[in-house]
Structure formats: C-alpha cells, structure tokens
Amino acid sequence: MNFQVVITQIISLFLLIAVGYFLRRSKHLDKKETGAISKLLLDLILPAMLISSLQIEITAKMLGDFKNLFLYWIAFYLILIAAASLISSLFPISRDKKIVLKFFLIFGNVGYMGLPVIDVIFPESGIFFGSIGVVVFNIFLWTYGANLFLRGKEEKKSNLRDIFNNGVIAIIIGLVLMLTGLKLPTAVMTAVDMLAEATFPLSMLVIGSSLAQIKISGIFKDLNIIAYSTLKLLIIPAAALLILNYFNTADPIRSILVLQIAMPAAANGVIFAERYEGNYVFAAESLFFSTLMAALSIPVISYLTTYFK
C-alpha cells in the first residue's frame, strides 16, 4: 500500500483545520459566523455534494455487485448502530458527549479519506465499490445521524421537515438520477459540482474554529477520546474483518468494507453538533485525535486485510 496517500490526505485536513483555528483565534471568525457556515453546509453545500457524488455510471454487469455491497453496508450500519448504542452507554461522560461518541463510532470519513486509499489498493474498481459505501453512509447519516443530534435536544421534537431534511431530499434526487440514467442540464450539474467542492474546506474551517476554544494538548490526556479512537480505528475494523472472513466474503468487497469502516470520524459530526447545539467542542476534539491516529491505524488495518485472508 502507498502510505503516502494516507499521510497526504491527513496533512491536507490538518492544514485546513489550522486555517479555521487561526481565523477564530485572530477574531476573523466568531461563534455566530461559524454557526452561519455550519447552516450553509447543512442546508446547501452538503446536499449539493450528495447529488454530485451519486452521479455514478452503472452498467448491467456492475448492478449485481452494487446490490451485494449495498446490502453488506446496510447490515454493517445496523450492527454499528446497535454496538455504538451499547458502547457509548458504558463511557462515564455526559449525555451530550455520549451522543458525539455514538455518532463517531457509527460514521467514518468513508469518502474524502476512504476513496483515495481504496483507489490505490484497487485501481480498477476501487472507486466504484467505495462509492457504494458513500451512498449508504449518506442514507444513514441524513436519517439516523442527523436525528441523533435532534433527539439529544430535550426541548426539540422532531417533525416531518427534520426527517425529510435537505440531505434526504438530495439523496432521493441523486438516487433517481443514478438509477434512471437521467442527467441534469450541464450548466446545472456544473453549478452543483462547484458547490460540492466547497464541502471539505468549509467543514475543516468549522472544526478548526471549534478547536480554537480549547487547549489542544488536553486532547491527548482525555482517556475517553483515546479509548473511543482505539475502538473506532482498530477494534471495530478488526471485528468486521473476522466477520467477513468467517462468511468467506471475497475481495475486493471484503477489503473495501473493512478499510472504509476503519476510517476516522466523519467531519459531519462536528457540523451537526454545531448546527443543532450539541457538544461541538468535544466533537472537534474527538475528530482531531481520531484523524491523527488514523495515520498509524490505517496501515495496520490494511496489512491485516492482506495477511488474514
């Protein structure tokens, strides 16, 4: 495996986080403005990214693999939801922090970090198979994940608009376009793609802004964050590998599933926490540490998928 791909992606993330950090520390960005960026991300830019990412050409030959991997991912997300509910309840932390940990145990950075890693290992079909994981990730993210933070607000009751949020609407549009082969007008699709490209820079600015409110050195002393990251990056992927080996799941499906499960926390957790008044500082701390730790854990998991076949 070309470990330079992993390191390059992580360095890029941290450079953007550093920009957000210094913008907040230098008073160029405050809490209100960070909240406005989060709202823009959730209401417009992330939905545009969903539609853009779902524009995948599917041939008749690919449809069978698509269905199989799609079902594998649904099964794993259901298992992750059950496991994360149990694991997060065991942590001796406040309710708002439990919600953050539960979210991060379920949702990893399967796209921005996952796809480049998979593309290196499986250059012929990696992006296609990896994109299926991104599709299922977004379905669960915008239904279960978003409502996880909404349910965390005791004074807020979920309504129909919360369930059919902009992300869910974007997924429906994207899936219809993908499965029917219909295309948006070129000018419209170009505009959607341009909005989608702003997703990760703005997400990292929000995370960096949140980190500016705490001492970064304190993150490395938080045993809860260290324990969560170990579970997320090593123990859960290793368990997934054992399950898939037990059922004799063939590559590339087996390795791609394990590698995407092994990705660090998804940046959406910080965005959701910021938008829905959750513990966004703890979310930023957890994401920061798990992304840093991924530089060591991803090569380990990659080696295990190769060694234990």
From TrEMBL:
It is found in: Cell membrane. Gene3D superfamilies: 1.20.1530.20. One of its GO terms (cellular component) is plasma membrane. It comes from the Bacteria. Pfam families: Mem_trans. GO terms for biological process: transmembrane transport. Its main location: membrane. Keywords: Cell membrane, Membrane, Transmembrane, Transmembrane helix, Transport. The keyword Transferase does not apply. It is a multi-pass membrane protein. The keyword Transmembrane applies. Belongs to the auxin efflux carrier (TC 2.A.69) family. This is Permease.
